[in-house]
């Protein structure tokens, strides 16, 4: 499984960005796809995930500001980020977890200036 993220960049506080993650290869039908982030000097943390059944879960810090979604084929997920804050600055990683293992993308940098 290969994951390719896109959509990161530099944005002012209060702005918006949309991240995309395209998954290729064999992904089993029962899976969870999600976004994690890692800021300098901090541990990687879950931002949001979405199951193959469509259930979603968000970190408290992004609830009401970020929305995760996936396309009908289930191989692309998006993270719509609004009302961005400087503390959202991090490298954002796409993740897929299925019955055969966990897979990570290379990450995309999101920088929010104050």
Short description:
The chain has about 110 residues and is mainly beta. The protein has strands at about 1-5, 10, 15-25, 30-40, 45-50, 55-60, 65-70, 75-80, 90-100, 100-105, 110-114.
Characterization of this structure:
With 114 residues, the protein is mainly beta. Helices cover 0% and strands 57% of the residues. The strands form two sheets. Strands 2, 4, 5, 6, 9, 10 and 11 form a seven-stranded mixed sheet that branches. Strands 1-3-8-7 form a four-stranded antiparallel sheet, with no helix packed on it.
The string of secondary-structure elements, in order, is EEEEEEEEEEE
Number of β-strand runs? 11
User: By helix and strand content, what is the structural category?
Assistant: mainly beta
Fraction of helical residues = under 10%
- What overall form do the CA principal axes indicate? globular
Strand content: over 45%
Rounded to an integer in angstroms, the radius of gyration calculated over CA atoms is 13 Å
Mean pLDDT: 94
* Distance linking N and C termini: 37 Å
Put simply, the count of helices is 0
Query: How is the main sheet built?
Result: 7 strands, mixed
Low-confidence runs of at least 5 consecutive residues: none
